[in-house]
């Protein structure tokens, strides 16, 4: 094939991919100078947060009681600057500016100031985030006889890594930051196989044993001292539609889980149902209705055909 024909084919593909009709819903136009959300920067923020919240377990620096204040200070300063940049990127991503240049400049300044305010507020909440994560460590340790120490829980267990991402992201979600909280929890999803929407509310002493395949939806509300096993889904049963047939966003559609609930592997709880305090849901159970406090819901076991025939004396 000649070079001229190759160039014509390439140019044709480029023109078709740049055509507005082919970009419907797939193109996000940025204002000049606006920062882009960066997965690499968010990963660095998470690593810094882990090093701050669990000093000596994460991060590259050696830490002792004499240098801990200095090391936390260095990490906090780095985290703050990265947060300012990434929060601003999130705010800019969803910001529609005016065509008037002066108004755009004012909007940019306002967004930058707001990003700095949010970053400072998030840093100020880190002590409380650490306090709550400490209860999660206790819950994971007390809930697993195979765990030998809190150090093992912090270093090895995917639930702590996932909850660190989630609890930081949840605070940013509460502070009104678009996009960035979801990117943070999706980093944990990729790392651990646990998918927690940053909008979910999760109480103290929460743990997930093993963890792989757990899904917790945006409007889910989870009480204190709740334990989930792998494969549990706390999801939505249906999506109400508006007059144009589009899903209605932002309405409560996920379960409310009371205090002291245990949900075993691969159970599915769907819709805005309430699981009463102290309830136990067995493995592979499908729940779409409320459960009273103290309920026990298990899947009915059916005898295997082989066992049934053998017990009847028929054999094989």
Attribute tags:
single chain; 316 residues; alpha/beta; five-stranded parallel β-sheet; 45% helix; globular; disordered C terminus
Structure, explained:
There is one protein chain. This protein has helices spanning 3-18, 39-53, 68-93, 101-124, 126-142, 150-156, 158-174, 180-192, 305-311; strands spanning 195-196, 201-202, 207-209, 215-216, 221-222, 227-229, 233-235, 256-257, 262-263, 268-270, 274-275, 280-281, 286-287, 296-297. With 316 residues, it is α/β, with parallel strands linked by helices. The strands form three sheets. Strands 1-4-7-10-13 form a five-stranded parallel beta sheet. The longest helix is centred in the first third of the chain and has 26 residues, at 68-93. The model is unreliable at 97-106 and 304-316 (pLDDT under 50).
How do the helices and strands line up, and which of them pair or pack?
Elements: H1 3-18, H2 39-53, H3 68-93, H4 101-124, H5 126-142, H6 150-156, H7 158-174, H8 180-192, E1 195-196, E2 201-202, E3 207-209, E4 215-216, E5 221-222, E6 227-229, E7 233-235, E8 256-257, E9 262-263, E10 268-270, E11 274-275, E12 280-281, E13 286-287, E14 296-297, H9 305-311
Parallel strand pairs: 1-4, 2-5, 3-6, 4-7, 5-8, 6-9, 7-10, 8-11, 9-12, 10-13, 12-14
Helix pairs in contact: 2-3, 2-8, 3-4, 5-7, 7-8
